[in-house]
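Problem 12. The chain below contains 552 residues. Write out its predicted structure in token notation.
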Amino acid sequence: MATKQLPNSKLPKLVTKTRVIILSDISNEPDDAESLVRYLTYANQFDTEGLVAVTSTWLRDAVRPEEIRKIVNVYGEVVENLNAHVHPNWKYPSADELRGVVRKGAEAYGMSAMGDDTPLSPGAQLLIDRIEAPDTRPLWILCWGGVVDLAHALLTLDDKHHPEDSARLRSRLRIYAISDQDDAGLWIRTNFPDVFYIVSVHGWNQYGLAAWTGISGEEYYGFDQGGPETEKWTRGWLRQNIQIGPLGKMYPDYKYIPEGDTPSFLHLIQNGLSNPEHPDYGSWGGRYIKTSPSDAVDSNHYGDAVDRVLGADGRLYTSNHATIWRWREAFQNDFAARMQWSMTKEFGECNHHPVIWLNDTTGLEPVKLDAEAGSKVILDASRTYDLDADDKLTFKWFHYREPSAVNWLVDQEVGIVTIAPLDPEARKVEVTIPPAEKYNFKIVSDRRAKKQVANGPVLHLVLQVTDSGTPPLTSYRRILLQVTNNKLVPPIATPIAAAPMAPGAVVPLVLGAVGNAVPSAAAVGNSTSRAAAVIGNSIDAILGNGERKESK
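Solution.
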């Protein structure tokens, strides 16, 4: 590791602290305790306003707040160590603060806990208090078990307030549920469809269909076999990297799949990739889109979306699970580094994240640019640095195409952006936007009738910078390019072809005639020095003889 560091004040600053309440059926199985341990290593990013022990279909008539307190107590032993490794303005909460928001939920299953004469549980009362608080920041309710306490709180608020005031209070809520684990989730979405609600909807107890199982469930549930890299979920890796130090001793061995609840807060991690208000952008916690875009339907439900990802076996996987497992190496290394932080106050003994400067701006929010169709844009991350001065940085840029697509057939809707490095390390790149006929149109009557428009889609580019520390840590910066068309041109109704690219290969491409993808002249014979420019699992590829190889 490095022997010379920059001061802590140059660590990344957060955008804001996110308000969070967790509903957990802890002790039902080990995964809630595992997820809580990980959550606490990120607790400086959150205003944790509630830790509520709840029931679920797996724990129907008891709640275990004491299990939450046990883990928080041990967190108190390491919190000062954790504080030594973050920006001094964004410290971790004390164990006393967290103990002060632990509550019991209703000790009954689902809607049976909501009779006319049933008193509010302490957990439901806390939810009401925090929803009514004058703080207007979004309040994220992370549901690791049943949600009857949330349902009871919403019903009480609706009875208590004028309809407009009740709706205003609900507009602050952001729900991320790990599937429906009681009958109250469906009740909430039916009676309060305006509530922002991320949840995988599937047949009862068919959890293998849910996006969140992409965190670690491919072997247990049998999906995407060969796609995810599995080594960082082995029991041996966990013993060596996670179950270390006082807090690591509170991380139990897994029983079914580890950390099934973790995607709910991975979606909120401030690392330059996530934008919690836009689940369709994609994050460590997966990618979700509205189940009904119609204004005629009063629904704010977000369901699973899919990404196309090159797996460890070189095959192309199109699945909802891939929206999470594609980031596994980065989020597992990140957790491992934080467990090391928990064991020492010595800054020089641990690795820390790169700090990205992009086009003379730093921070974690997306960089937003307008780009004329057919134009070139320069993106410059030359000022990016690492706090651990001896670490080497690897720059990888990729076009995240799925967030720009409305339809399943991404290749026909989202053209290929060329990303060409301008220096050996790819700190600086030139981005070529496809011409207007590839982007700036809308379907006006059927799939063949298109009309030119002034503004096309917003394109998502991602810069990923990884250091050479132990474990390697990754920071991101998302670039949002609004494609413009100041000079309208006649439409061309030719499908956009995907760029030929073997798994992990790096060949910058330009669009030839009629949408064909051809290697740029500068790239021929010179792909090795540009290897850092393209992330290995970005999917702008056709494998084999023009046939896409998919797992599902």
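Discussion. The two ends are 42 Å apart (CA to CA). Students who got a different answer should revisit the alignment rule from Section 12.3.
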